[in-house]
Amino acid sequence: MPVRAAAELQPATDLRIAPDRDGWTSLHQAWAVPAMRRDHRHDELEVNLVLDGWAEYLVAGLRVHLPRHGLGWLLPSQPHRLINRSPDLQMWIGVFCPALVASNATPAADGAGPPVAWLYESPEETLVRVPGRAETRELARLFAQLDEPGMSTKRHRIGLAWLLSECWRAFQSADLALTGDHLHPAVELAARWLFDHSGDAEANDLEALASRCGVSRPWLSTLFQQQLGESMTDFRNKQRLQRFRELIAHPMGMPMTAASFAAGFGSYAQCYRTVRRYTGLSPHDLLTEALADGNR
Length: 296
Known about the structure:
Layout: E1 23-29, E2 45-52, E3 55-59, E4 62-66, E5 71-74, E6 80-85, E7 90-96, H1 98-104, E8 128-130, H2 133-146, H3 153-173, E9 176-178, E10 181-182, H4 185-197, H5 206-212, H6 217-228, H7 232-249, H8 256-262, H9 268-279, H10 283-294
Helix pairs in contact: 2-3, 4-6, 4-7, 7-8, 7-10
């Protein structure tokens, strides 16, 4: 991906880090956390560690896949969005304030911590690697310890610095490095638009979407399938399915029919067919599964 200075990008999102903290860790679970509805970036360095399932991001024009046990970095200069994930995704997220990163970083990429240049620009390669199972377990233990409430400021700061160093060590020593897929601008625009508007009736008109992207529908359909591995219809329907699952599993419990319309389906019958096609379950079975996941 091209190197871009953070100052040229969109305003940074406030991650609401407590004044006495230099970052935080949090467990992202697909059944408990809604998907991102827009791009964002932040001044903090972020690392993701996938325990189960998989996740896919759009990162500065790249489609980036994080498999099970994948360890990936997201830099301050990289607008990103989680666009797809498996229903069983469990992923630790850690964020580190610039001052903590700078005090533990090294000028080169072969030191004890990430290179300090990561705070200001992006390297050419995709920053995803797959450590071994034992390293993944050890990193997950460190993430979990730092997520415990009541830890003193000093212990938390030392622990974050150690986690940053261990993530870097695991990343450097991993044998398997993954590359991202460069997306054609029209494919990226179509994917972002469908993600943002899957609940709208306009998302049914793929001819209009192709015109919005400045290309023909047959051309866009073919390239979309090639670069994202699924059709535009499947991509849109999966966003609607994910939204439906979130709505019915929410503590407030939206009724099935209302949730189907809110997710973008034209009828409950259409919703039922889509749920059955992609999951093999009925909507009621999907709700049972989602509630069971939330009680793990």
